Please model this.
Amino acid sequence: MPQPVDPGQSLEQLEGKRWPEPPQDSTSLVRSVHKLRRRPIGALEPDELARLIGQDVGLPWLLPLAVEILRATAPDQAAGGWYDDDLLYAVLTRRPDVWADAPDLARTLKEAVAILTDSPVT
Model:
């Protein structure tokens, strides 16, 4: 699954698909997902990544970014005894076949989770 990622491109550019505008009566979640698909993926904040990943949107490009954020922040989060879990939850709850297709990424995620769960909470 992991593919080379150009953080300056949007999901629409990376996928080569432009979604039509959402219907007028769409939920805020639907409108948000449509809007986020047009932003460069490197500019997405963790909560925005969580929103897209939680909807299974752009996983080949977004999961590697999310796992890297989780890996990079795990030591500091564990040391503080607190973790903002929206991104972690979105990543951990993807279907098993997603992880079967990306074993190296799954291994990196397991390492990050181990840092969080093996540290004493203060």
User: Anything to note?
Assistant: The helical segments are 11-15, 28-36, 46-54, 59-80, 86-92, 96-100, 103-118. The CA atoms of residues 81 and 121 lie 4 Å apart.
